[in-house]
Amino acid sequence: MTGVGQNVMTCGLMGKDHQACSHGLQALEEDQFSFIPPPADYDPNGERSVVINVIYNNFPVAAQTAFAYAVDIWASNLTSGVPVVVDATWASLSGGTLGFAGAEAYYRNFSGAPQFNTFYPVALANKLHGSDLSPSQVDISCTFNSNFTWYFGTDGNTPGGQYDFVSVVLHELGHGLGCIGSANVSGGLGFWGLSGDPIIYDEFMEEVGGTDVTNYTSGSSALEAVLTGNQLYWNGANGMAGNSGIRPRMYAPTTWNGGSSYSHLNEGTYGSGNPNSLMTPFLGSAEAIHDPGPIMYGMFADMGWDVGGCAITGIFPTTQTECNLGNNTYNQNVLIEFDNAPETGLLSVNGNLYIINSSPQTITLSGLDSNGLTVDVTAFFSADPECSLTNFDAFTAPEPCCRNIRISQADPSINQFSLKNFGTCQIDISQYKIISGSQFATLNTLNVLSGLLTVNGGSTVILEWPAWTPDPSGIDLALFLPNSSFTNPDNIVDFVQWLDTGNPREAVANIAGLWTSGTTVMNASPYTYFGNGVQYGVDFWEGYVPPCSIDAVTAGTQTACDPLTNLYTQELSISFTSPPSTGSLNLLGQSFAFGTSPTSVTLAGLLSDGNNVSFGIYFTDQTSCVNVFLDAFTAPPGCGCPTDFTGDGVTDIQDLLFFLAEYGCTENCVADLNGNGSTGSEDLLDILAAFGSSCD
Fold it and tell me: How far is Cα of residue 64 from the mean position of the Cα atoms in its chain?
């Protein structure tokens, strides 16, 4: 997990004056006339294992030269494959602060973090992660006071009354790189942690009796007493080794100093002229310290920095062969860069051992599985396992070229499905996962009806899943790699979906390029793949096509009886399966075009008589596809005069003449008074009986 969301804390969130953001070095107005030279092995022209880039804001040129010199001293003894970006500002500061600096962000629970739920300053987090967790921002911000009389020379010969700028820059970069804790004192209470978790610096702080600071309750008076008890110590093994095996003493005055307490070495213990005096809270005039000192280097090593000695500084993928059709493998070359490799032992890369040559060294990783997944690369020296580095997701394997397992048939009606190896080489699928709806299983827990779970090229295995209870309205079936997440598109192997859409794996299969969202295999089980093993999606699947049937009729809107005609209209929704491709639907003597099921029709000119209406429906181009629906709906009661065809309110000679003109009609007959579909003698008797009567 990278340092995002709740796993990152920035100075912008905490406030620039927060203890974990910046610490100031205070001027001591007393000439010391002391000089601690750079480390004995410092070579201005030597190779560097970390790149530190500086952005200067309003800096004098001479100050930039001194700044670069201080940067180079740190770079000569630290290792990181990720450049460190420093934002440096030249500005007027109040009081006796020579400068202040801090990390711009803190990350926890990222890939490569040595400790869980522990914040690391961003430069160190990047180094441990192997790539930049915050590429859009700087790593360290620092500001230097333009009001002081500075000595910008790099020789340590600082005149009286002046302050050595190289020393101040070294000091402040030390804070930005990691010499900062989260502890604070306010209102008589002591606090530690960011969002409830410590900074890595806090993990090595303890009181005189050996109790870790982080064992005290944050927000307690007991912790306040420890933080201001003048007896805080560093308990890391490397820090103690830098102090001849003795716990380094930290600065913890009885009055809390928010810019100095806790995050510095003790001033009284490591005073002017001491090799470990750089990271104390005060610097005197005419005092030059050009070496972080053995204690500070040890503390940095405790926190996770590679300090001097052996370091693997980079793992870079180079050439990759194509997938081997014979065994589905490939080779990958990686370039390993390192400093100060052990003189004995071997170089281990992803579990394989190699003779150590000069840096950079090319290693060939052979016989890797072509599975299309990303690959982490870890390298270390057998004689010094702590000298190691991991490049997460260093490269991506080729897609499989001879192993190509596919779902070839899904038959939920009998709880069976088939898998076919369309490739040319054998594949063990016993640990593959199958999922349908909310059900899932490992293949080796199912019943093998035919074939083997070690599937040869071109072979098929038929499996029975007794517990499979797919939704009758439709479901999906998806095949996944072993030990994989069902939401990761990199892990899905194949997918089929029928009768409905919107299953959880549909989006996963769509992202993986196996299936287009919103598509589905229609018709009925079994569902069969008829592609060539390379093609995916609904276009290469078919289901059983059921015979034509008219399945249901649902009554919709009905109009009221028309008093002038005694007629009404009725809307119907008609559902059907496998209709003919031509023709129309016919019911009650009326024909309608149809599209997909269900289709809507409107019956017009129906007689209002209050009776239940039954009828048959058939397709005109497939008359055998017919169904009868009894009492499908009820007609409205009759209204008006059905024999008053002219609408003048009386049945007279004009209506009789209209009737006689319709006599003998057999289809869509307006004068069909008894509703039998034709105009005949029975209708004539009805109109004669009503002749001369009024419609009032």
Answer: 42
Structure tokens, 628? 């009868």
Would you state the pLDDT for residue 2?
Answer: 33
Q: How far apart are CA 151 and CA 167, in angstroms?
A: 10
Q: Is 578 in a helix, a strand, or coil?
A: coil
Burial class (CB in 10 A: 0-12, 13-18, 19+), 213: buried
For residues 641 and 355, what is the distance between their CA atoms, to the nearest angstrom? Answer: 110
- Give which of 565, 583, 573 is closest to 620, Cα–Cα: 583
One-letter amino acid at 240 equals M
pLDDT per residue as tens digits for the range 245-293: 999 999 999 999 988 999 999 999 999 999 999 999 999 999 999 999 9
Most distant CA atoms of the chain, gap in Å? 138
Provide the token pair at 49.
């294992």
Token look-up 């900074």 returns 199
pLDDT digit string, tens, across residues 199-230: 999 999 999 999 999 999 999 999 999 999 99
Q: How far is CA 87 from CA 18, 121, 132, 265, 462, in A?
A: 18, 15, 16, 25, 64
Second-level CATH architecture of 405-544: Sandwich (2.60)
Torsion of CA 541, 545, 550, 552, to 10 degrees: -50
β-strand partners of 576: 550
Joined together, the tokens standing for residue 201 give 């610096």
CATH of domain 643-696: 1.10.1330.10
The structure tokens listed for 158 are 């600082």
Q: Do domains 405-544 and 643-696 have the same CATH topology?
A: no
CATH topology of domain 549-634: Immunoglobulin-like (2.60.40)
DSSP 322: P
pLDDT at 3: 37
Q: Which portions of the chain are predicted below pLDDT 70?
A: 1-6, 9-23, 309, 326, 472-473, 564, 695-696
Q: What global pTM score does this model have?
A: 0.50
Q: Which DSSP state fits 559?
A: P
Strand order in the sheet with 567-577: 549-558, 567-577, 599-607
Cis status, amide bond into 636, omega within 30 of 0:
no
Instruction: Answer positive or negative: Cα dihedral of 121, 124, 128, 132.
Output: positive
Following CA atoms 129, 135, 138, 140 in sequence, which dihedral angle do they give, to the nearest 10 degrees?
0
Rounded to 5 degrees, φ, ψ at 62 are -60, -35
The span from the CA of 429 to the CA of 481, in Å, is: 8
How far is C-alpha 571 from the geometric centre of its chain's CA atoms? 50
> How many Å separate Cα 221 from the centre of its chain?
42
d(CA 124, CA 84): 9
